[in-house]
Specification:
Layout (H helix, E strand, L loop, with lengths): L1 H13 L6 E5 L3 H17 L10 E5 L3 H4 L5 H4 L7 H9 L4 E5 L11 E6 L7 E4 L14 E3 L3 H10 L4 E3 L5 H9 L5 E5 H6 L8 E3 L13 E6 L3 H8 L4 H16 L8 E8 L2 E9 L6 E8 L4 H16 L1 H9 L9
Parallel strand pairs: 1-2, 1-3, 6-7, 6-8
Antiparallel strand pairs: 3-10, 4-10, 5-8, 5-9, 11-12, 12-13
Helix pairs in contact: 10-11
């Protein structure tokens, strides 16, 4: 189905049929699934403008983060590696909107662009995948865990210090193939991604927040456009899910307050329960030996303030020395996967 749609779009472009909206995305199966979900929702919301298949053209843009897979993200410069080329295409007018996994989006946006829309969030939890154990706690010392996430690594080692984490990048299918080949004993993936690709049954277990607090903005899809493009803004404004946007704004304010990047194990999640916004956040050392936590409750209208105050609270408790020391820490288990 996906291949047929892409072929059709290519034929229409060759015939000179101009799409009404050009949508930029990364090329991984998950990114494409999110792009086609966005296209479906646009057609549903604007049946008289964007319902025909050729009305929304999906353009795949290769990013540095997708092309360089043999190095840790922190060595390459962090989250912007998954958005830089998309930003350039957007500003050049090659695309009208860009669809992102929000956890890959830096807390700062390139000037001239805005990100005013989040689709309704999926399950934010992490999926544990292992043929050897139903839980990280019961794996024996020396077991290899494939993950490029320092957040996951820190929380795993806090619960089971004998584990060894190895750099493990690539799309979902690549990671699962490596696991099947016995390169590692277990891995973790965002449960939202598995669900979006109809692969939820790959999960051995789904970890609750008490076991593994998810990444800031995990499970959320964001749609970006140029700040002066009123036509694109009208389309994507109609797709925004207010509760998701509020929670993600809180989490990203927490991350920004901590100057968070891929060198810092940071987790943060907000949810609205009975009209009240509840936030949990943490910062940890890479080896999981030190963890600082903050919990806040308040009105959804104060989402960004709540996130910012939680970050400032952890900064004050941990002290600047902790963050300086954190930047100098080496990752344990320098084993190539």
């Amino acid at each position: 189905m996906l291949a047929n749609s892409m072929i059709l779009l290519g034929l229409l472009a060759a015939e000179g049929v101009a799409a009404k909206i050009k949508l930029g995305t990364r090329g991984s199966p998950l990114a494409l699934a999110q792009a086609y979900e966005t296209k479906r929702r646009l057609a549903q919301q604007f049946p008289h403008e964007l319902a025909d298949d050729e009305d929304v053209e999906i353009k795949v843009i290769k990013t540095t983060g997708d092309m360089v897979l043999d190095k840790a993200l922190k060595e390459l410069g962090g989250k912007g590696l998954f958005t830089k080329e998309l930003d350039v295409s957007l500003l050049n007018g090659d695309v009208d909107i860009c669809v992102h996994s929000m956890k890959d989006v830096p807390t700062w946006l390139v000037p001239g662009t805005i990100l005013p829309c989040n689709l309704e969030r999926e399950d934010t939890r992490d999926a544990w995948i292992s043929p050897k154990s139903d839980t990280p706690v019961t794996l024996p010392a020396g077991s290899l865990i494939g993950t490029a996430s320092l957040r996951r690594q820190a929380q795993l080692l806090a619960r089971n210090p004998g584990l060894k984490c190895v750099n493990f990048r690539g799309n979902v299918q690549t990671r699962l193939r490596k696991l099947d080949e016995g390169v590692v004993d277990a891995t973790l993936l965002a449960y939202a991604g598995l669900k979006r690709m109809d692969m939820a049954d790959e999960a051995t277990a789904v970890l609750e927040w008490e076991e593994m607090l998810p990444a800031v903005a995990q499970g959320a899809i964001g749609i970006q456009c140029r700040d002066d493009d009123e036509r694109a803004l009208r389309y994507i404004d109609a797709l925004n899910h207010e509760e998701t946007f509020t929670c993600v704004s809180c989490e990203r304010a927490f991350l920004a307050a901590l100057d968070g990047n891929c060198k810092t194990p940071i987790a943060g999640q907000a949810q609205i329960i009975d009209g009240e916004l509840r936030f949990q956040g943490l910062v940890a050392s890479v080896d999981g030996s030190k963890i600082y936590r903050s919990s806040k409750v308040g009105a959804p209208a104060d989402a960004e303030k709540i996130g910012r105050e939680a970050g400032e609270e952890i900064k004050a408790e941990a002290g600047i020395e902790f963050f300086e020391w954190l930047q100098q820490q080496e990752e344990p288990a320098a084993v190539s996967a």
